[in-house]
Amino acid sequence: MLIQNEIPKEDLDYILEPFKEEDNKEKNNKQIISEKIIAIIRDAKGNIIDKREQKMRSLTQYFLALMSIPIIGTYSNASSTTATGVLSNVLGLPSQVSSAGNALINFDTSIQLGSGIQSFTPTLNSLSAPITNGTGTGQLIYYTSSVSYTNNSISILIIVSNSSGNTINVSEIGLIGTIYIGYWSGAYYTNNYSYLFSYDTFSTPISIPNGGVATFQIIITFSG
Amino acid sequence: MMIGSKVDYDISNLYIPKDSKEDIDYQKSFNATLTIIVRDKDGKVIRRHKQKSHSPTANFIGLMLPATWYNTTGKTFTLTSTSNSTYNYAPYGPNIMYGINYPNSNSNQQTYLINIMVGSGSNSNPYSAINLASPISNGSGTGQLLYMTPNIPTGITINDNQAYFITSQSFINQSGGTVNITEVGIVINLGIHDSANYQDFTASVLTWYDVLSSPISVGSGQSIVIYYTFSVNA
Question: Which chain A residues are Cβ-neighbours of B64 within 8 angstroms?
């Protein structure tokens, strides 16, 4: 009998063992989730001056923790009133909300750009040098993020413009996630928790000239 | 500042540059693996099976849609239970937040993993699957397996540039005959509420589904453990 959270070593070794080449290569290479980043940069006259498309490489443990909700739920078990360890230990969410009404969880995403570069680790929680919103030196104006959904694909898009007076170089991009926990306790309350869901760098920085506009898209496609 | 028709064109046409370079060193950043260990009545391993797991269902994808999509489009996503009841999910209303039930001292409508379900059939389209094609029920009668309590992870394990969690469940065959498994799925009890403590939807929902690349036979007295491993890596 398997004791809670105890996996026999012989099982764990086999679980973590890499697939062998002969293990049905075609099926093993089919992606569950494919991620793509698209960037289109226009100058002040609206002419396209650069365009990029690259695979997204680096989902963090925080995105994995988010995905755990449709897989293992939010409660530890059927009779529990505490959150799963993934939610409380990895995301730092409360183990339990004390309120008169039910507590609820949902999330949102947005894109952040940066001018730095750093090595990826699954625990990365911020860009190296985030480009902030504004018209000052080194800043970009971030317009409202939008999300589209078609078939199995979710696309998160942000438009930015450069009114800083100088060219801005974008070398890193992150998918920022915000998890909301709302509850009713005489009044309605919402607590926000922010995470870095993905992190990627561009092989060469993307230059946005003064007066230029750029769209950045992150597309997540589920195999289904 | 030029935020006009040309940018609108970029957005509306989901413009993908034809001459952009593909990275040649790309590796999949998300993986799921389905592992099954079969043991005899003495606990000795007699078969091991491992395959890539491929198939989040439509329910899973709907639950992974960010709130902005619901807010800006005003649309809902239709979730379907294993018994084919439906709910038009939208985690935001005009004034209040909707969402999945979160642990609460006063709540008794939990969202939790019910079972890693096993079955003896096959759905041709995992995306649209709402239940296993032929679920094997819990018990010791003919064609049944005893379902033990599922194990859920207490956290995420980090190993260099990989992060993963494993969820598992054991099954014992006391049916007196051999039981063949051809399909596996993850079924959660999903509770969705509004903020006024009104219960909108609580149901069993299939969120993940796989057909085995080769059937697993569980003889009388034998047991199996099914492990789902979900990982991200750079």
Answer: 66-67, 70, 154, 222
